[in-house]
Amino acid sequence: MPRVTINISDDLLAVLETIKVRERYTSPSEVVHSFLRHWALSQQEHKLTGEWARLAGPERDALDAGLLKLVKAGKNKKGSWLKAQIYAAIKEAHGADAKSPTIDQVLSVLPDVLRREILNQKS
Known about the structure:
Number of helices: 5
Order of helices and strands: HHHHH
Shape: globular
Distance between the termini: 42 Å
Structural class: mainly alpha
Radius of gyration: 16 Å
Largest sheet: none
Number of domains: 1
Helix content: 55-70%
């Protein structure tokens, strides 16, 4: 099997290690393989996080630190944190009384809503 070297921040490495333990993977490679297989099955655009990969170092590092806080706190373990952010994105895109935005409409604002929420977490 070919070897590939990837560079990730210390915070994302800590996220990977936490996921490895929490989900009972035996190695970091199993975690990455699982994520890649999940993507291969769903083949969804990375609307939530794709643009974050291209952020400047300091902003990207701040997001990674915020994501590590979320993982350590277990806030999104059952998806409730993300669900709350989706509701916030719906309100932001279409007003507090919005009834039925499309998925594309929600996904267009969700990355910014999530970024703000992650960066504004209380310690």
